[in-house]
């Protein structure tokens, strides 16, 4: 496996850096080999960082990304635009500003508020990094972990709650700032020590250097072409950006059938079983595929930046669940009365196969009406949805046991080293960072205490809206405090396999979901038992107890990126805090406007059948609030609950990694055994619903093509263009999607013909149990 540089160039650069460090007395090289190979060990502290260009492009990138990510998260095929888009696009923009802006000093209020230079010189790598830090706030807010907006959407669109804008804004901002406070308090443990190396950052460092250092040749590896051949990365990006932009007019407007190409339903138009098996939207998707990039990358992120080992493990779990377990449970054993319901659906059902009307069991205060629930009947899930929840149980314990067995010794040694007095012996990067003025701890403490105080105040002032009492808030804060450090150690020191940095994904949402154990299952369990019958409280508890930790780790990862790229700590603090506030306000403003101006948004029953505003992500958030909050885990998973046997998967998850670990120790020469990763195998079923089997299957196929075959046989091309192609496809798809909405769909210029029907499988969502009557379906 080769690095992004040729071996000769890498050796010369390492020798130069080491000599410079030794000459300056900057200290030892980083003990982590991957970091020593990729991260530069020199620094110029006179390089300008928070320039006019950085502020302008940084805030613009943050606003654009948060707008696009919020906009697309409500669509049937959601799309997350990663920070790599800004990382690539701002380079020519920054160079253009450096070429045209005058070298002139600007005084604010006659110099009383300071001054700045419009053009302090060539656009530099540190400006580029700080702009990316701004942009990453737009990703973390609007991407896969924008759970606070999901909660607000559920409160307004599903529960029809009269929630005020100020209360919603406080929920959004306190969640993020709470995470930033945790991050600041944990810097000394998770950022400063060399052992806490955050593997996922190394790909971004490699890309920064590739964009700013002169492109040269290299040893592309056996069977590869030289990375120096072909167009530059920027020209390649523009070519595929415009190609993707033009192409998305087909699946996005003219020919939406390309999103779910379910040919089996055309072959057997009257067979329920064939359509259940072959439907890409409402069935198992066997043989179905998508030619829509938004559909491929909607739920697991871009497959072009996922490590091959993760793709392979995910494929094993996907095939096992979709093609073996679900069919057996549905057709062979009729598990959980499965045949009364669609085989795949994100809806909730009654015992008679009808959609569950939660308004019949809700009080005016949005609590469970127990008498009405007992009269109306129990809640049921589609079979695939129920098994998906069970896979979450398995994944939680499997992650803990897997990490303990395969990485426990390393984590313990690295943690002791990082948190003991030995950590005072800093590597070259830490010593170079000591040149800069540090951020006082009390700056972060003020943010942490302030967000906690405002959150507690909300539990009194907005008691009816948030449902979560003050002690529930404190419980959530305590949970976040307990778990952030150990999960941070896991994320900062390990990966799914010891893989080369060039293979580590740059997609923030992906890197979090793979490495962090999904303790949200436990969080929902605990608050569901402590506050049964309160769905809004369950949503808010998850935000403050789990999502704040997710955001904290995102901030910590960015702090480590700044550490590697020698960004002054106070510049990092300013960029992250300002980006957080700006992203939060824009995030809520866009969501608020969409909820108020798109008719029947998220209401699948009232929407036009071909409407893209079905909110599948937020439908599952609503379902979770009903399952864990309104009905509660005791009624569904307790001793007398219909789904009580799924709880055994907690035990299964704890047991399954053990034989893999024992085999890897017994046969150390067989390296492939250690690559078997039970948590990632169970991840092959994660996200369904809202993800469909077609989404995941297409993701797996695309990832295999690029990260196995292209990487193996065209390594030079892969090294130079793979990440750039991913960004171009994301960007082109996103901009065309926004253009289609504002130019056509928002003006009600809708097409209606055979090709605009997303899925020609009307019978796929029909039940097959005798006597169940559902509109549009035959009765057996």
Automatic annotation (TrEMBL):
Segments crossing the lipid bilayer: 52-72, 79-101, 163-183, 236-261, 311-333, 384-406, 442-462, 468-492, 573-595, 646-663, 672-688, 694-711, 723-744
Protein name stated in the entry: Oligopeptide transporter
The keyword Secreted is assigned to this record: no
Organism: Oryza punctata
Entry's family note: Belongs to the oligopeptide OPT transporter (TC 2.A.67.1) family.
Membrane topology designation: Multi-pass membrane protein
Main location: membrane
The entry's keywords: Membrane, Peptide transport, Protein transport, Transmembrane, Transmembrane helix, Transport
Cellular compartments annotated: Membrane
GO molecular function: oligopeptide transmembrane transporter activity
PANTHER family assigned to the protein according to its UniProt record, in alphabetical order: ISP4 LIKE PROTEIN
InterPro entries to which the protein is assigned, alphabetical: Oligpept_transpt (IPR004648), OPT (IPR004813)
Top-rank taxon: Eukaryota
GO cellular component: membrane
Biological processes per GO annotation: protein transport
């Amino acid at each position: 496996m080769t690095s992004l540089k040729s071996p000769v160039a890498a050796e010369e650069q390492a020798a130069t850096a080491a000599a410079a460090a030794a000459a300056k007395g900057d200290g030892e090289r980083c003990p982590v080999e991957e970091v020593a190979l990729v991260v530069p060990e020199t620094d110029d502290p006179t390089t300008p960082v928070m320039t006019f260009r950085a502020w302008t492009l940084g805030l613009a990138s943050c606003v654009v990304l948060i707008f696009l990510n919020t906009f697309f998260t409500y669509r049937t095929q959601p799309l997350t635009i990663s920070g790599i888009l800004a990382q690539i696009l701002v380079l020519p923009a920054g160079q253009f500003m450096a070429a045209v802006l005058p070298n002139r000093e600007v005084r604010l209020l006659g110099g009383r508020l300071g001054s700045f230079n419009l053009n302090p010189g060539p656009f530099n790598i540190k400006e580029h990094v700080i702009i990316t830090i701004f942009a990453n706030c737009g990703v973390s807010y609007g991407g896969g972990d924008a759970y606070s907006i999901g909660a607000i959407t559920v409160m307004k669109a599903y529960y029809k709650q009269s929630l005020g804008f100020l209360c919603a804004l406080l929920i959004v901002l306190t969640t993020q700032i709470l995470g930033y406070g945790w991050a600041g308090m944990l810097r000394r443990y998770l950022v400063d020590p060399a052992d806490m190396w955050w593997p996922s950052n190394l790909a971004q460092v490699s890309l920064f250097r590739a964009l700013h250092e002169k492109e040269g040749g290299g040893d592309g590896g056996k069977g590869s072409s030289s990375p120096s051949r072909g167009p530059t990365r920027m020209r390649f990006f523009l070519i595929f950006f415009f190609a993707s932009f033009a192409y998305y007019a087909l699946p996005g407007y003219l020919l939406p059938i390309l999103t779910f190409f379910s040919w089996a339903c055309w072959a057997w138009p009257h067979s329920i079983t064939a359509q259940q098996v072959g439907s890409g939207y409402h069935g198992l998707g066997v043989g179905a595929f998508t030619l829509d990039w938004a559909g491929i990358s909607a739920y697991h992120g871009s497959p072009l930046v996922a490590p091959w080992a993760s793709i392979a493990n995910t494929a094993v779990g996907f095939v096992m669940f979709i093609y073996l377990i679900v069919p057996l449970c549905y057709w062979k054993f009729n598990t959980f009365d499965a045949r009364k319901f669609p085989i795949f659906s994100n809806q909730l059902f009654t015992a008679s196969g009808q959609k569950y009307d939660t308004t019949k069991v809700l009080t005016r205060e949005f609590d469970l009406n127990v008498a009405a629930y007992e009269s109306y009947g129990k809640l049921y899930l589609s079979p695939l949805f129920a098994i998906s929840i069970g896979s979450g149980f398995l994944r939680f314990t499997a992650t803990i046991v897997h990490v303990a067995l395969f990485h426990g010794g390393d984590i313990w040694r690295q943690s002791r080293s990082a948190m003991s007095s030995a950590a005072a012996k800093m590597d070259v990067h830490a010593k170079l960072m000591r040149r800069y003025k540090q951020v006082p701890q009390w700056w972060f403490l003020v943010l942490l205490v302030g967000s906690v105080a405002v959150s507690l105040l909300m539990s009194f002032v907005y008691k009816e809206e948030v449902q979560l009492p003050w002690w529930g808030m404190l419980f959530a804060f305590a949970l976040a405090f307990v778990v952030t450090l150990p999960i941070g150690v896991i994320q900062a020191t390990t990966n799914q396999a010891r893989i080369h940095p060039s293979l580590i994904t740059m997609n923030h949402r992906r890197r979090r979901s793979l490495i962090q154990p999904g303790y949200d299952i436990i969080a929902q369990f605990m608050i569901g038992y402590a506050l049964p019958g309160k769905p809004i409280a369950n949503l808010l508890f998850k935000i403050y107890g789990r999502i704040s930790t997710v955001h904290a780790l995102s901030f910590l990862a960015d702090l480590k990126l700044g550490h590697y790229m020698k960004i002054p700590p106070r510049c990092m603090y300013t960029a992250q805090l300002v980006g957080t506030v700006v992203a939060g306000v824009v995030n809520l403003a866009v969501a608020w406007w969409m909820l108020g101006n798109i008719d029947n948004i998220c209401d699948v029953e009232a929407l036009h059948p071909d409407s893209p505003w079905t909110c599948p992500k937020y439908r599952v958030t609503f379902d979770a609030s009903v399952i864990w909050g309104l009905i509660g885990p005791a009624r569904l998973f307790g001793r007398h609950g219909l789904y009580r046997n799924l709880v055994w998967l907690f035990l299964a998850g704890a047991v399954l990694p053990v034989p893999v670990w024992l085999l890897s120790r017994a046969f150390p020469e067989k390296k492939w055994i250690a690559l078997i990763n039970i948590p990632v195998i169970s991840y092959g079923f994660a996200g369904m619903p809202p993800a469909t089997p077609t989404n995941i299957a297409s993701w797996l196929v695309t990832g295999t093509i690029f990260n196995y075959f292209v990487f193996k046989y065209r390594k030079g091309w892969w090294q130079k263009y793979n990440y750039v192609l991913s960004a171009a496809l994301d960007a082109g798809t996103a901009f065309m999607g926004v253009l289609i909405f504002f130019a056509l769909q928002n003006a009600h210029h809708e097409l209606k013909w055979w090709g605009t029907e997303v899925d020609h499988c009307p019978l796929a969502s029909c039940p097959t149990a005798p006597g169940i009557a559902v509109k549009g379906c035959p009765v057996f």
